[in-house]
Amino acid sequence: MYLKNSLIIFICKVFLATVKIFSLGSGSTWPGHIALKMNTMIIKELWEKSHLKVILIAGTNGKTTTSTLLKFLLEKNRYKVFQNEEGANLLNGVASCLVRYADINGKLPYDYGIFEIDENTLPQMLEQIQPTAIILLNLFRDQLDRYGEVNTVGRNWKEALRKLPENVNLFVNGDDPQIYYLGLDIKSNVYSFGLHSTLLEKKEVPHDVDSTYCPNCGEKLSYKTMSYSHLGDFSCSKCSFKRENIFSYLPAELKSSLTGVYNLYNISAVFLLLEKLLNIHVDSLSKQLLDFEPAFGRQEIIQYQGRNAFLLLSKNPTGFNQSIEAINSFSNGKINVLLILNDRIPDGRDISWIWDVEFENLLNNAVNVVVTGDRTFDMALRLKYSLEKDAETRTDGNSICFDRVTAIQNLESALALVVKNTPKDETLYILATYSGMLDVRKLLIGKKIR
Amino acid sequence: MEKLSLTIGWLYPELMSTYGDRGNIQVLSKKCVWSNIKVKILPIDHNTSINELKNIDLLFGGGSQDIQQEIVMRDLRGKGLVIKELIERNIPALFVCGSPQIMGKYYEPAEGKKIEGLGVFDMTTLNPGLTKPRCIGNIIAEVELDGTDGTDSPKTIIIGFENHGGRTYLGKTAKPFAKVTHGFGNNGEDGTEGIIYKNAIGCYFHGPLLPKNPEIANYLLKKALSVKYNREIGLRYNSDDILSIKAKQIISSRYID
Fold first, then answer.
1. Is B161 in contact with A395 (Cβ distance < 8 A)?
2. Does pLDDT of B233 surpass 60?
3. Which of A24, A171, A393, B203 would staple A402 via disulfide (CB 3.0–4.6 Å)?
4. Of A203-207, A350-354, B182-186, which range is least confident?
């Protein structure tokens, strides 16, 4: 068996090296695909043999940031850690990552392996590996064509989590009713993280909500206060279901270069895990957090032609609304924005969700908005109907303009225009779906798009 | 001159709003405002009285998740008769995604009992369960509506997205809303998509149908105005054409030479 796995690892490593030498891509999923073809149990076998401690991170939004932050803080505390590449979060991505970091004997000389896991893959992953800890961040509407309804994802998770033994540590978002519910009536150790009352500022339920009905009895939940979407201090008036025993941190403890309320949840999850699992005090975590830099495309800043290009991956209604809130919070009312809407497989083929985003809040603060991507004109229509007053629509060469909005299908031209619109040394904001973010990032760092 | 006004009823916005359904309401209400028509959006839920419901000029329903659909059905049974009366009185309506199923004769889920619908539409829906894949993808269809403006030809191409497990079959005399040119439509077999009865449209197009297909929005609004004021009234606003035509071209060019 091990000989066989050694051979598989060898083949995959040769494959990886070839991919690297000839720059054929990142090789983040193909080696795993091959490895799983040769041995469907390779994930389980490598994990069992190496006694590797595994931490899984799942949820609609924040997986990559949370994984990257967790790795950063573990390394600061002298642990040896590896993580799977962003987006490579199906079983083939996990297998790729394991064969990459394993030595030829199938050993993994690391303290922790951190894996962000796709929503649909979490149950399958739990069949293969028994993790030391799981972080469950949130569940929002996302790619309905791929994931199905939010309720279905929640149900599948509950079933998988019920099978876990006592010694698994589960860290759940206690402000998300559906996630909090997952932590009830299971054998594992459950810790709930949430935001401190001073950070729950909203009183009204926004439009982009999914879980405002009691997961226990179906009654409408009431909220004392909220942070965003359906996250907040909830309780059910009919049954006993309510948010309680929440671990939260003070605003000062969560200070970092990451902006947006959503990141406070990501940080709280990581802090709570490190406190409970490794006894690391929050004071030292807070200090170490100050040195953290965001992951690729998530609030990343790239210098481009004398401007600061600020990238915000925005791939579903809640993510988009949070990006808009974040840029409004440090804006001067003169925002220059580039919106990229694609409908490729990693983005989701269905773009209906843009009508659940509050673009009105963006237009209130923007001086120029340039729209591009595969679905340029769907996004332009969305912006058109966000306007108070009807605006004349004009065709101008390759672009269509109205009010402060310009729609250009070609990404290079769209980027050139938003750069022209933005004064030197100022910030231009780029809100993009997944593949759009990868493409624009290539342009910003001077690479060609394939 | 009196200012024109319309009341648009929106079925259970909190429960039946799955994926951008409110785009339709945004288009209808902005088109009214921009045409100088006073518009009131009336959310219809368990707090809505029968009298309020009787006075609407246009009705819209979106999609819902399974659990929410049960809650909706419990309340809607008490309102079914009034909704039927509205449709019989030629009040225009648009039901997208899952809501036409509620308006049909019955719905047979993959597991469990048959669910009675309100019987507005002469159609039945059957969910074959996991043995057959869901119908997911971009959908292109051709409609022939009287009274649409913005196009010279009475035929209009509409484009959107469908995502449904159920297969819908129309009654013998029922009229399909559109003819599928790409995608699945009602059942993936007979080339029909949706249903139209009097001025009420039901379709599997989900979420924001109207932004990319303003012809349908214009049709609904003009019908609502002519029923209420008993004369033909044109809409002033018409400038979303370039964007919607371009948006449609992008999808149609992927599937049609």
1. no
2. yes
3. A393
4. A203-207
Active site residue B203: no
Mutate to test the interface with A, among B134, B213, B246, B252 (most CBs of A within 10 A): B246
C-alpha span between A321 and A336 (Å, rounded): 17
pLDDT given for residue A450 in this prediction: 56
What distance in Å separates the CA atoms of residue B123 and residue B101, rounded to the nearest whole number?
8
pLDDT of residue B151: 47
Average pLDDT across chain B, whole number = 90
State whether residue A151 sits within 8 Å of chain B by CB. Answer: yes
**CA–CA distance, B130 with A148 (Å, rounded to integer):** 13
For the cut 60, the answer to whether the pLDDT of residue A198 exceeds it is yes
Per-residue pLDDT tens digits for A338-364: 999 999 988 989 999 999 999 999 998
Which residues of chain B lie closer than 8 angstroms to A381, CB-CB? 211-212, 240, 243-244, 247
Confidence of residue A190 (pLDDT cuts 50, 70, 90): very high
In the block, residue with structure tokens 């829906």: B125
* Dist CA A172 CA A192 (whole Å): 5
Mean pLDDT of chain A: 90
d(CA A389, CA A403): 9
User: Rounded to the nearest 5 degrees, what angle is found at the Cα of A178, between the Cα atoms of A74 and A269?
Assistant: 15
Complex prediction ipTM = 0.94
3-state per-residue secondary structure call for chain A: CHHHHHHHHHHHHHHHHHHHHCCCCCCCCHHHHHHHHHCCCHHHHHHHHHCCEEEEEECCCCHHHHHHHHHHHHHHCCCCEEECCCCCCCHHHHHHHHHHHCCCCCCCCCCEEEEECCCCCHHHHHHHCCCCEEEECCCCCCCHHHHCCHHHHHHHHHHHHHCCCCCCEEEEECCCHHHHHHCCCCCCEEEEECCCHHHCCECCCCCCCCCCECCCCCCEEEEEEEEECCEEEEEECCCCCECCCEECCCHHHHCCCCCCHHHHHHHHHHHHHHHHHHCCCHHHHHHHHCCCCCCCCEEEEEEECCEEEEEEECCCHHHHHHHHHHHHHCCCCCEEEEEECCCCCCCCCCCHHHHHCCHHHHHCCEEEEEEECCCHHHHHHHHHCCCCCCCCCEEECCEEEECCEEEECCHHHHHHHHHHHCCCCCEEEEEECHHHHHHHHHHHCCCCCC
A146 pLDDT band (50/70/90 cuts)?
low
Identify the pLDDT of residue A51: 86
CA A394 to chain centre: 37
Q: How many other C-beta atoms are found inside a 10 Å radius of the C-beta of residue B157?
A: 20
**Rounded mean pLDDT, A124-139:** 96
Q: Give the residue-averaged pLDDT of B60-74.
A: 81
Q: How far is B253 from chain A (nearest CA, A)?
A: 12
Give CB contacts under 8 A, 24+ apart, made by A278-283: A278/A77, A280/A73, A280/A77, A282/A249, A282/A253, A283/A253
Does A155 touch chain B if contact means CB atoms closer than 8 Å? Answer: no
